[in-house]
Write a structure and sequence with these properties.
The chain is mainly alpha-helical. Helix content is 54%, strand content 5%.
């Protein structure tokens, strides 16, 4: 009985040892991707989502306590604390300005991008180089970083929309 077991164990092992070695796959480094990963290292999306929700809540409180004219001249920003029927979570009082809706959309986008950049690790640059801390306006480098993250996650803005809704619904 033991000879049969020995036969079934040794013969496949001997056959595998005579097989020619398989060549390893060639590793090709894309120069654009390798520079992207040096600037923005790989990250765990679950950690980024948890951090985003917390930072978003803090930024939402900051909107509520912001002085007039902070983000745009002649405007006062308010946080709604929820997403309204038109899909917005901020309100701007613009006075006589006619592009209030565009400014609100721009401020909402700035807020989301700044929250993401606050959470993602950027070892080569400081956060001050990515956006203006007072107005949350992205610098050109901050815009490039958002684009690099969007290349990794093509559905980035859909994911951020879900996280924004989660941050506002769990209040």
């Amino acid at each position: 009985m033991r000879t049969y077991i020995l036969f079934f164990v040794l013969i496949p092992g001997l056959l595998l040892s005579f097989a020619p070695p398989v060549q390893a796959a060639k590793k090709v480094k894309a120069s654009s991707k390798s520079s992207d990963y040096r600037e923005i290292p790989a990250f765990n999306w679950n950690l980024v989502s948890s951090g985003f929700v917390e930072v978003f809540r803090n930024r939402n409180r900051e909107i509520e306590s912001a002085e007039p004219n902070r983000f745009f001249p002649g405007t006062v920003a308010f946080a709604l604390g929820r997403i309204d029927n038109s899909g917005h979570y901020l309100m701007l009082n613009c006075g006589s300005s006619s592009n209030c809706g565009a400014q609100r959309d721009m401020l909402e986008e700035r807020m989301v991008c700044v929250c993401l950049l606050d959470v993602v690790r950027t070892p080569r640059v400081s956060k001050a180089q990515l956006y203006n801390a007072r107005t949350w306006e992205l610098t050109s480098l901050g815009g490039e970083y958002i684009e690099k993250i969007r290349k990794r996650y093509p559905d980035l803005f859909t994911r951020l929309g879900r996280l924004t809704a989660a941050a506002l619904s769990s209040r």
